[in-house]
Amino acid sequence: MCSSVSGTGNTKVTETELQKQEKSERNIEEYTEIAQSPSHCLESVTIAASTSKGIESPPPDDHFEAPPTNDIITPSPAHSITMSNLNKQQEIGDDKNTEIDKSTDKEDAGVGGKKVENEWMTDKELEEFRQETFDDLRETAEAVVALLTRHQKGGAFVDEIYDAALVFDEAYYELEKTSRENIIKFRKDIAELMIETKYFKLSCEIVMHTYMNGWRSEEGNEEESKTVPLIRSLDTLCNFSDCCDEYAIGLANEPGFLDTLIQVLRESLPKYFAKEGEPKLVGIEKHLIEPSLTIVHNMSMRETNILNLRNAGILSCLKPYLKSPNTKYALTALASLAGVINEEESNVIKSNKDIVMILLDCIREGMKDKMRECRGWSCQESVFSKFFIKSR
């Protein structure tokens, strides 16, 4: 990707800091024009981003008061942030998404050089698959939500809830061999089913209860009966809050859930940015930051959530992650902040232009992908985030 300051070729002229700053700003404007260019197919993406979220204009800049900032933890210096870093980083839990091939292009059949069409589902097959999946998910959700006894001795959730956490997490990836539009609708419909059956509330309960009560045995070992439902439920909430507005809004308003996410992010900071010889994140702790950041980001993309996020202290919680050595964490934190800050707080964007450039590269790279994604970031998300950054 382009760095925040372009090179000067073979010239020997030394740029002043002011010249570098001006050049950086020009680069960002140029990439913004690319992102808005119909020739790059982003005009329709921009429209989709704004209409699907119900956004006609940026959130009012003077609507909120800034939360206290005296509890910000100062992290260690940031590592270099580049697009190559984003593509190479493979931290635990970073690559859960499975590859889904939606291409109708001909592929090599491996027989005499002949090529055959990918076998997509017929409309009838698709409808049968959807109906069977939804029937199974509804039956599962209604059964576990109705349980009067949800915990075993020792604090772990009962086996039925353990199994349901696996089923709903895997359901997000179930549909293949059809169009991108069908897959998105399938996922959105599952999200709505989870709201209707109140299973999404149970997922929140699993996260909150397990985080507050711990997941280790008396001997100090992690217990799979606690860690698996925790991580699977976080992943489920992360994925489905991405594709459904009502789901993301519901999570932001679920009593105690947003506070739990912020607690996770705050309490992870000292170990995440630990220096040599200091305690670091271990075991399941390594799995908690990414889904928590992503859920917060999904919340921030819905304007009705902004007041809740600000009142919960999200600004001071996210700012340290802008210095994360993991580019994806830094990008997610910046995009989340872009949705909730006001004009007076816009310096957080201006002082992190290298991450803004990463966001613009995500738009360009995502347009080349069959699912219009770049490392888990959809073009719609990227354009939507750029819309807020530009407005600041």
Features of the shown structure:
globular; mainly alpha; two-stranded antiparallel ribbon; two-stranded antiparallel sheet; 392 residues; 2% strand; disordered C terminus; 4 strands
If helices are DSSP runs of H or I spanning 4 or more residues, what is the number of helices? Answer: 17
The helix/strand order is: HHHEEHHHHHHHHHHHHHEEH
Radius of gyration equals: 22 Å
Helix content: 55-70%
Instruction: Report strand order across the widest sheet.
Output: 1-2
Cα separation of the termini: 23 Å
Query: Helix/strand-derived class?
Result: mainly alpha
* Main sheet specs: 2 strands, antiparallel
Provide the domain count.
Answer: 1
Overall pLDDT? 74
For the secondary structure, the number of strands is 4
What is the strand content? under 5%
Explain this structure.
- The protein is 56% helix and 2% strand.
- The protein has a two-stranded antiparallel sheet with strand order 1-2. It has a two-stranded antiparallel sheet with strand order 3-4.
- It contains 17 helices and 4 strands.
- It has helices spanning 17-35, 42-52, 83-88, 123-145, 159-171, 180-197, 199-213, 224-243, 245-253, 257-272, 289-300, 306-311, 314-318, 327-340, 347-350, 353-366, 379-391, and strands at residues 107-108, 115-116, 373-374, 377-378.
- The longest helix is centred in the middle third of the chain and has 23 residues, at 123-145.
